[in-house]
Amino acid sequence: MEALLPGKKSQDRFNLCCRIFRLKLKELLHLIIDKEIFAKVNGRVYVVKFQKRGLPQAHMLWVLDAPYKPKTPKDIDKIVCAELPDPNDMELFDCVASHMIHGPCGSTNPRCPCMKEGKCSNKFPKEFIGSTQVNNDRYPLYLRRNNGRFIQKGSHLIDNRWVVPYNKYLCKVFKCHINVEIGSSIQSVKYLYKYIYKGHDRIQARVSSMYAPIDFAIAGTAPNSSSHDEAQQYLDARYVSASKSFWRICKFSMQKLYPIVYALQVHDENMQSVVYAEGEPVSEVMDSTRYYLRLMLHHVTRATCYEDLRTIDVVVYDTYQRAAAACGLLHSDAEFDNDLALASGVASPRQGRELFAMMLLYCEISQPVVHLEKYLEAMSEDICFENNALEVTNQIQRKVLSALESILYHNGSSLEAFLGLPQSVELQPIETICRPSHENNILNAILAVEHLQGMLNQEQRQLYDTVLEAIESAERAKEAKVFFVDGTCGFGKTFLYSAILAKMKASRLTAISTATSDGANQLLAKTFLTPLNDDVVKVNNMVLDDFPGEATEYISFDAIPPGEVNNKSLYPIEFLDTIDDATMPLHKLRLKIGCIVILLRNLNTLQASRKPFYHPRYTLLLSHQSSSILFFFVTVYNLEIFVVRLRT
Questions:
Q1: Which range is least confidently modeled, 136-150, 207-221, 313-327, 624-638?
Q2: Are strands 56-64 and 115-116 parallel, antiparallel or unpaired?
Q3: Cα torsion 454, 459, 464, 466: sign
Q4: Which residues have C-beta within 8 Å of that of residue 278, sequence separation ≥ 6?
Q5: Are 434 and 382 spatial neighbours (Cβ–Cβ below 8 Å)?
Q6: Which of 343, 410, 420, 640 is within CB 3.0–4.6 Å of 606 for a Cys-Cys bond?
Q7: Torsion over CA: 210, 211, 217, 223 (sign)
C-alpha cells in the first residue's frame, strides 16, 4: 500500500497485483501439494486467466488419492463450508463476509452482472438444507442451515443462502476469494476440464468513426443489402490487458499439468499416416486399422512386434479387427447363437421364446431375424403340438411372433423396435399364449423326481421314504407330523428337501418351503455388509484369491456405433474401461470353476409376477463342463432362473 500514489487503488498497480497473486499462488500450491492439507494429491491442473478489468485468477482441479477422496457428507463437510462462521472467530467471520458472499442479486439488485433473463446465472440464493447431500449428477448440496446468522451488506441482510462454498483454513490464510467445490460426478469433472481449457472469451464487435461516413461497400453491411459479407467483417483479435501483458513479460507460468500427458500417435507397421482418396467415405478408412490396433495394444501384454498383437492362441490373424474378435473384444452374435442352440436342446419352447425376447431387450443382437428363422422350429414345438401341426406353418409362425410381441410389450417394447423383424404383429394377452398347463408342470416334477431319487445316498433315501410314508398316512388319518433332520454342513439336507418337495408336487400335493432362521442362507454363501462398492470389490477379490483353482478373466467388448466414427476419440477406451459406477458392470470379471455367483436381477419381470412369490437372489455354482460366459433358461423344480456357466 505504501507504493500507491495518492488516490490510487491496488488494482491500479497491475505489476504489484500480478506479483502478489503469483506469491499467493505458489504458497497455495505448496500447502496443497507438499503439506497435503487435504490429502495426498495424485493429479493436478491449473490455468491462470485474467478478467477483463485486469485482475488475475486461477482455475484449479485437484485429484486426490483414492482412499482420501471425499465420498460421504462427513468427508465433504471437513473440506467445504457454505455457512457464515461463528462470530466469535472474528478473523474468519470478517474474511467470509468480505470475500465469500455472492451478490446480493435477484429482485433486490436486478442490475447485478450475474442476472440473466431475470434470474441469477449462479442460482443464488441457494436453499436452506439441514445436511450435506451427495448429488450424483452435479456438485453436492452443501450444508446451509437456517441458524439465524446474518451479516449486513449495504441495505441487505445476508444469510447462509448467499455464501459461496469455501475452505476455512485457506480463507484464513490467504484472506481472499477462494471458491472450493467437490467434483462428485463424472459430469462435474468433465465440466471443470472444459472450463479450464475453454480459452479466452469472444465477442462480435465493429469499430467505426463517429465522424467519418461508413463505407458500406467495403463493410458489406449496407441497409437492405443482400451482399452481407460476414467473411469481410470477421476479425480474429485478442484483448490483452495490462496485467496479462506484465505476466507474460515476466514469463510467469500460465498453466501446469501433472502428471504430464502426451498424445502418442497410434499407427500400423510402417504406416505413420492415413491417406485416402478424395471422395472416399471417411468411415471406411479412418481408424479402420488404428482403432483395432489401439484396442489390441490396450489388452495384449508382452507384445514385442506388430505380429504379436495379431497372434491369438498361436493363430496369426491378418487384421487387428479379426484378432480383436478372436479375443472377445468386439460385439458378435456368435455368443447369442450358441446360447440359443443350447437352449433349444435343454429348455422348453416357451423358455426359448423368453430367452430370445430377453436377448432382444438387453443384448443388442445385430441380426435378430437370422436367429429367429434358425430357431423358429425349436421355439414353436409346443404351439405345433397344441394345434396338431406337423410343421411350422404361417399360422404357427404368427403365433410365435405374437408370443414374442406379448413378452416385449410387457417389458415396454415391441417387435417394431428391432430392425429386420416382422412388423405389426397382432398382440394377444400373454396369459392365453402357450402358458404351461398344470399337466406340463406335473410332468416336469416327475422328471425331476426320477433324477433326484437316483442321486440319494442310503441315509438320504431312508429319510426320504420315512417322510413320504408319513405324508401318505397323514392324508388318510388326517394327522400332522413334524420331522427334524440334523446333520453337519455338507450332509445333504438341502438336497433331501428338494427331492421331497419335487415328489410332493409330482403327487399333486401342495408344499411350501420355509426356513426358521437365516441359517439356511449360509449353506451356500456368506453375507457381508459393506458401506461402499469398493469394499465389496475388495472382499470379492480376497475370497476369489483364496478359492482353489486358476482364475479366468472376462472383459467387456467394445463397438463403434454407426455414425460415431469421428466422435470416439472423445471417449478413449482406456478411460471407458476404468469407469466404476454402481449402475454399470465392471469392465473385468474374474471367475473360477466352482466359485459362487449371486444374480441380483430378474430380467423377465413378467415371469416373476406370475409366481406366488419371488426371491430376487439365487446362488449358483459354476459348472466344470463347459470359452465364454453364456446365459440361458433352465428349469429347477419348475422355477425359471438365469444360469451362468463357465466354460474351460
A1: 624-638
A2: unpaired
A3: positive
A4: none
A5: yes
A6: 410
A7: positive
CB under 8 Å to 602, separation ≥6 — which residues? 608, 614, 616, 642
Percent of the chain with pLDDT over 90: 22
Q: What amino acid occupies position 16? A: L
What would the pLDDT profile of 445-462 be if each residue is shown by its tens digit?
777 788 788 888 888 898
What own/partner pairs with CB < 8 Å and gap ≥ 24 does 485-491 have?
Answer: 489/523
282 or 123: which carries more pLDDT confidence? 123
Q: In residues, how long is the chain? A: 648
d(CA 464, CA 453): 9
Q: What integer is the mean pLDDT of 538-565?
A: 75
**Is 145:130 a contact under the CB 8 Å cutoff?**
yes
Helix/strand/coil (H, E, C) string of 34-65? HCCCCCCEEEEEEEEEECCCCCEEEEEEEEEC
Alpha carbon distance 406, 350 (integer Å) = 12
| Higher pLDDT among residues 452 and 247, named by residue | 247
CA atoms within 13 A on the CB side of 80: 26
Distance (Å, whole) CA 641 – CA 618: 8
| Region for residue 57 given its phi and psi (left: phi exceeds 0; alpha: psi -120 to 50; beta: otherwise) | beta
Across residues 569-580, what is the average pLDDT?
Answer: 69
**Where are the domains positioned within the chain?**
71-182, 282-326, 335-432, 438-513, 522-646
Question: What is the per-residue pLDDT across 492-519, written as a single tens digit (0 to 9) for each?
Answer: 888 888 888 888 878 877 776 665 544 4
Q: Which residue reads 505489476 in cell numbers?
A: 15
DSSP string covering 76-88, please? HHHH-B-S---TT
Say how far apart CA 615 and CA 401 lie, in whole Å.
30
What is the rounded distance in angstroms from the CA atom of residue 441 to the CA atom of residue 438? Answer: 5
Query: Rounded to an integer, what distance in angstroms lies between the CA atom of residue 447 and that of residue 502?
Result: 9
CA distance 157 to 147: 14
- In whole angstroms, what is the distance from residue 540 CA to residue 546 CA? 10
Query: If we measure between CA atoms, which residue out of 293, 286, 291 comes closest to residue 307?
Result: 293
Which three cell numbers mark 363? 443384448
Q: What is the DSSP string of 466-506?
A: HHHHHHHHHHHHT----------TTS-HHHHHHHHHHHHHH
What number is the average pLDDT over the span 116-132? Answer: 92
Rounded to the nearest 5 percent, the helix, strand and coil shares of the chain are 40, 10, 50
Distances (CA, A) of 440 to 70, 382, 392: 56, 11, 22
Mean pLDDT of 326-351: 83
pLDDT at 111: 85
> What are 430-439's pLDDT values in tens digits?
433 344 444 5
**pLDDT (mean) for 529-551:** 78
CB 140 within 8 A of CB 184: yes
Angle between helices 458-477 and 493-506 (to 10 degrees): 40
R_g over Cα of the chain = 35
Predicted TM-score (pTM) of the model is: 0.48
State the helix-helix crossing angle for 334-346 and 349-362, rounded to 10 degrees. Answer: 160
Is the N-terminal amide bond of 56 cis, ω within 30° of 0? Answer: no
Q: pLDDT tens digit string along 163-196?
A: 999 999 999 999 999 999 998 666 666 666 776 6
Q: Over 90: is that where the pLDDT of 296 sits?
A: no
| 632 CB neighbour count, 10 Å cutoff | 21
Strand partners, 630: 645
- Which pLDDT score, from 0 to 100, does residue 622 have? 38
pLDDT greater at residue 476 or residue 339: 339
Partners of residue 133 on adjacent β-strands: 141
